[in-house]
# Entry
Amino acid sequence: MDDGPENASANALETLPGDLMMWVLIVSELLVFGAGLAAFLSVRITDPSGFSLAQARLSPTAAGINTIVLITSGFLAARALNLRLLAQRSAARWHLVAAIGLGAIFMALKIDEYMEKAGEGISTETHPFFTFYYLLTGFHAAHVLAGMVILALVAWKDDPGDMEAGTAFWHMVDLVWVLLFPVIYLLG
# Structure
């Protein structure tokens, strides 16, 4: 029996939970967000005081609440998958509905934040910090919306494999926010 590197990587792909194409999507999205964060941090180096002044106009408390909302949503999605694997289909669907509801709360809070910034006259042109702020958090918000649609579809279809792939995408959305939150709202 050959346990060389080729065989080990083939075994890893076979044991990867969910759908391979979903993992390709997740990794590609993580790379895009990673590049955006790297660009943000690179530009921040050129103007640390300007970035700090711009960042002070954000509410880390509201973003922290949104972090708790999204992480709780991720927990509910994971719980839904576990319930579905235990053949508790109705409970699994309700957990997904609750996860979607928390995603909607996240979006409502994010839209409120954007409206507040717009009311203050803050746009992508105000400062490079806000260019990155709107691009990164806006791109993330688009992924939250897509994730909500995916969770609704997998709740409706009720297939364990699809649910696993859908919750994996939702966890990627959580992970990206857990990276964006400290970099955009807390990094001093």
Observations:
- DSSP finds seven helices and no strands in the chain.
